[in-house]
Amino acid sequence: MANKRRPKKTRAPYRRYVYKSNNYLAGSDEDEEFEDETEQSETTLHTTNNARFKRAINVQSIYVLSDQIRYQGKMWPWSKFEKVDILQCALQGHNPSYAHNGPEDEPTQGVMKFPAEIFVHIFEILDAWGKLKPKYMRVCKLFYLLILPILYRQPQLKATNFFNFVEAISSNKSLGQYIHALDLSYIIQSGKNAFVSKLMKRAGKNLEILVAPQTSFGLGPLIALKNCSNLKVLDLRLVSETLNLEELFKSIRNLTELTQLSFPRSSVEIHDYQSINWPPKLTFLRLSGGISDDFLYQFEFPPSITQLEFAHCPSISDLGFRQILYRIGANLKTLKVQYPMPGLKKNSLDQVFSYCPNLRVLEVSVDYVSSMFFDEQYLGYMDYPRPLRTLYINSSGMLGTSTRLDPIDLAVALNDGRLPYLKHIQCTAKLGWDPSSDALGYIADELDERKGGIYIGY
C-alpha cells in the first residue's frame, strides 16, 4: 500500500521552448498573439503550436524576400525549374502568392522531379573523364535524349570505325546536327573524298572545328566547306595532297566565324592573288608547305591577325620573312618560328623585337638567331614596358648551335628592365646552358619572384 501520509512531490514549473519560425513577416499580429499565449498552460501551448504550424506553408513552398520585393529565380530552359536561394528566402519571410498546395501536384507524381540540367552536367563531367558509356542511353528515354548530343559532339574517329560512322550519319540526318568537332587526323588511307565531303555536309550546320585528314581531302571536301557556316577552326596542316588555294579561299571567304586557319604542309597552287578574300574574323594563321616569297609579297594580310606561325616553309627566304613582319608585325601578339626553315639565315630573327614590339608569346629556334639576339641593339628600350611574357627557345642540335646564345645576355636584359613582364622561359638542353651557372641562377631567381620560372627540356 502506498503511504498516504508521505507528502506529495511538487513538480517544478516547466516551460516548453518552441522554435519560433521566421516564416511570418516581422511585426505581424500572429506573432504578438503567440508571445502572449506562451504564459498559458502546457495544454494551451500544444494547441497553439499545432494550429500555428498547420497554418504554416508546407515544404513545397517557395519563399521570397518580402511581399513588396518579388524574388525571382533563374528559370532553367528544359525542366522549367526555378532556381532560387531557399536559405535567403526562408530567413526573410514568405509570400503567399508563391505557395503551392500539395494536392495540386498529385497528378504529376509520376514526373521526374530532378532537373534535366543536373543530369546534363553530370554526363558532361563523365565525358570529360572519359567514363561516359553508350550503354547509359538504355536506362530511359530521357537519358537517351541527353547523352546522344554529348556522344556525337566530338566523335573519336579512327580507321576502324570511320565507315560505320559515315553510314550512321547518312542513314539518320538528324545526328549531324550534334557534331561540333571533327578530328580526321587518324583517318589514314581509309577514307575517300566522297565520304569526307558527305560527312562535312551532314555536320556542316553546327560544325565548329575541323582537322583535315592526311589524304582524301580534294576538291569535293573543299566545296563542302561552304556548308560549314559556323566553322571557327580549320586545320589543314596534315594534308599531303596538292591543294588549290583559290578554291580554298572561295570556300572560306563567307565563313564569318572562322578565326583559325592552318595551311597544309603540301605544295599549293595559286595564280590570281587579287581574287583572294580573307575571312573577316581571322586571328590565327599558320603558314607551312609550299608558301613562297611571292605569296608573302602579293597577299594583303588582314590586320585582324594577332597570332602567326611558320613551320616547314622551305621556299620562304629571309627577305619574304621580314616583309610580312614589316607589314603586320605591330599587330602580332604571338609569333612562332619552328625548325626547319632552310631559307632563313643565321641572323634572320634578330630583328623580331623591332618588327613586333607587342609580342606576348615568342618561339624561336637558335638556328636563326645570332649571339646579339638579346643585346640592346635589337632588344632595346621602349616608350612603354615590353609586354613579352613567354619565351620558347628551341634548337635543332646542329653543330655550332650550342654556343649561339649565352644566358648572360638574357640575365643582363632582365636586370636592365628590358623584359619587365617576362615570366616563363622554356628552352632545350641542346643550348648547352649549365644549370649551375650564376647567370642561369639569377634568371631562375628573377623569374621566381615574378611567379614564373625557367624550364629546360631534354
Automatic annotation (TrEMBL):
PANTHER family: F-BOX PROTEIN YDR306C, PARTNER OF PAIRED, ISOFORM B-RELATED
Source organism phylogeny: Eukaryota, Fungi, Dikarya, Ascomycota, Saccharomycotina
GO biological process: SCF-dependent proteasomal ubiquitin-dependent protein catabolic process
Native source organism of the sequence: Candida dubliniensis (strain CD36 / ATCC MYA-646 / CBS 7987 / NCPF 3949 / NRRL Y-17841) (Yeast)
Protein name per its UniProtKB record: Genome integrity and telomere function protein, putative
Stretches that traverse the bilayer: none
A GO-annotated cellular component: SCF ubiquitin ligase complex
Gene3D superfamilies: Ribonuclease Inhibitor
